Amino acid sequence: xxxxxxxxxxxxxxxxxxxxxxxxxxxxxxxxxxxxxxxxxxxxxxxxxxxxxxxxxxxxxxxxxxxxxxxxxxxxxxxxxxxxxxxxxxxxxxxxxxxxxxxxxxxxxxxxxxxxxxxxxxxxxxxxxxxxxxxxxxxxxxxxxxxxxxxxxxxxxxxxxxxxxxxxxxxxxxxxxxxxxxxxxxxxxxxxxxxxxxxxxxxxxxxxxxxxxxxxxxxxxxxxxxxxxxxxxxxxxxxxxxxxxxxxxxxxxxxxxxxxxxxxxxxxxxxxxxxxxxxxxxxxxxxxxxxxxxxxxxxxxxxxxxxxxxxxxxxxxxxxxxxxxxxxxxxxxxxxxxxxxxxxxxxxxxxxxxxxxxxxxxxxxxxxxxxxxxxxxxxxxxxxxxxxxxxxxxxxxxxxxxxxxxxxxxxxxxxxxxxxxxxxxxxxxxxxxxxxxxxxxxxxxxxxxxxxxxxxxxxxxxxxxxxxxxxxxxxxxxxxxxxxxxxxxxxxxxxxxxxxxxxxxxxxxxxxxxxxxxxxxxxxxxxxxxxxxxxxxxxxxxxxxxxxxxxxxxxxxxxxxxxxxxxxxxxxxxxxxxxxxxxxxxxxxxxxxxxxxxxxxxxxxxxxxxxxxxxxxxxxxxxxxxxxxxxxxxxxxxxxxxxxxxxxxxxxxxxxxxxxxxxxxxxxxxxxxxxxxxx
Length: 679
Prior knowledge:
The chain is mainly β.
């Protein structure tokens, strides 16, 4: 395969590594113990990944979390989250319009559709990935799981952290994080970031790469603590992406990193968030109010659909403009930590999501044998979704060994659509003006039992529901509507934690069944997708996780998960559910040497994945693994590292579109240098 050459390590790199003797800087402190996996009554089984653990796997995007947690995977075409599919234990969202299977919250602020999820990760204090339905402890419904991310709070003194990096494809970035007290009960945190790189996919027709990326943004928090038991927080985030085209190439191409298109493509995206948080502590527990407003705008997304130079007027292209505004309000009550045998969490939640879009698809059609004509379709739509929910979960310690758990969620969801779809060859326009609404009840039961001081057993059964709604891109009104997807999930597991050995290991088995599973199907008369209910899906599986420090300085982190997600009903009974990898696995090793030097390496494996219901071999990505590594020097106020990603230069697709016989190749081999400074 022909690739662009990687930049070499320059003399500056050599000076950075060799020109600073370790004796001039204080040695780094020993690595802290890995955060254990915890099973509690207040929260479901899940994984907590601290910032250091994310660094071990060089995770700087949501897609990079694939494999870090078993049976969690992201299918992406590298468009900042737009069109991404996130799955957990066999359940996933569709490309467009259906509710997320895996919900996402950042600093208690809920996100809307999966397409509007941020692709990149902020500098995080921790990421909590919870498996199974989470509608009984969160206002935002997570029918298959939840991503709960937290950014670092201000410390007792002012601090500033600056990180810069440079690497292959002229990639460079900078991050600045500050935080600390301001006086008078006020404190602040601030994150500013910029990232850019040249594209991976070359286009000889245009004489340049077409999928360059550039992102600039910032997050600011202002805290005010007027009394010892009350805290206010104002949170503001803004970012803008000015990217090239979607990372797509023809599956028939001998080089997945080359296309011959006359359309460069473009993705411009903006995100704004403002939220106000109030927390009140008392002997009765903790009360939280979170009021949030968000605006996500895609303007535009331009994609060449045939990925080649076409006759003028006969191009195949897609131009999409989309906007999503989200208002949410949550009131949450939590029991105090010393509440005795009882603990609980309950709340009420309101969300209004208004989405509008203007999409134009142009492509040639055969109107008679051998006679082709250019055709274009334009879809203009407005979707208005309302969710009102009350939720709660309580646990009771029957004995020091046994705890029982019960919870429920009552939710009303309503969706209204106004949509007009017109075509240059089909008259009259197709119009959809409709609404749908329903109440849903989602119960759960669970128990945990401490066999001894180090071993705990647990079991949980819950219902998760993805509400019904409408697909704006459907060709006919009958295609537009789809029904709710109801999942019954069950799991049993064991966790072993031996603190003196710095060891935590867990093993779980699960069996999920979805009725009326929501999937996308292509419209054979256009290049669009619409959502349908594909009958029942069964998803049995197993998973395990490991955190271990076998000796001083050595950290081991691993996970593995297998899921057999299959359709139970015709016409695809026995076929694998698309977009869900058969397995995920990861293993990371870090060794901290004396005097601040360290080295770390990690591998992530993803199992075979189909991208259509019929399971055609042409649209199947086989199993693959990516190997990353890093060596560096870390002191208390300074660090520098050389890193490599996909060291074996593995070729694979992170997304395949059967309609246009194209795929999104995964990141090629990348090298770089990163330096950071604390002051």
